[in-house]
TrEMBL record:
The gene is fdx. Keywords: 4Fe-4S, Electron transport, Iron, Iron-sulfur, Metal-binding, Repeat, Transport. It holds the Pfam family Fer4_7. This is Ferredoxin. It comes from Halomonas lysinitropha. GO terms for molecular function: 4 iron, 4 sulfur cluster binding; metal ion binding. It comes from the Bacteria. Residues 1-29, 31-64 form the 4Fe-4S ferredoxin-type domain.
Length: 82
């Protein structure tokens, strides 16, 4: 699954630089995650780095975007091959 940022986001700016795929960016009101770039840090780290640094715990799994670990690894390989 890709991750998502909920309305509880306080725009603290700590998640964006932690994303190894550049999937996090400022949205109109809160930060947003591009599901096409989010691999939950598979291929880079054991755990999603944005979740680790978020002070308000507002980055859950996106239930609309279910992906297996294998699918996330394949996405990671496509992203890093470019």
């Amino acid at each position: 699954m890709a991750l998502m940022i909920t309305d509880e986001c306080i725009n603290c700016d700590v998640c964006e630089p932690e994303c190894p795929n550049g999937a996090i960016s400022p949205g109109e009101e809160i930060y947003v995650i591009d599901p096409g770039l989010c691999t939950e840090c598979v291929g880079h780290y054991n755990e999603p780095q944005c979740q680790q640094v978020c002070p308000v715990d507002c980055i859950p799994l996106d239930p609309e975007r279910k992906e297996s670990r294998e699918e996330l690894m394949a996405k990671y390989q496509l992203i890093t091959a470019a």
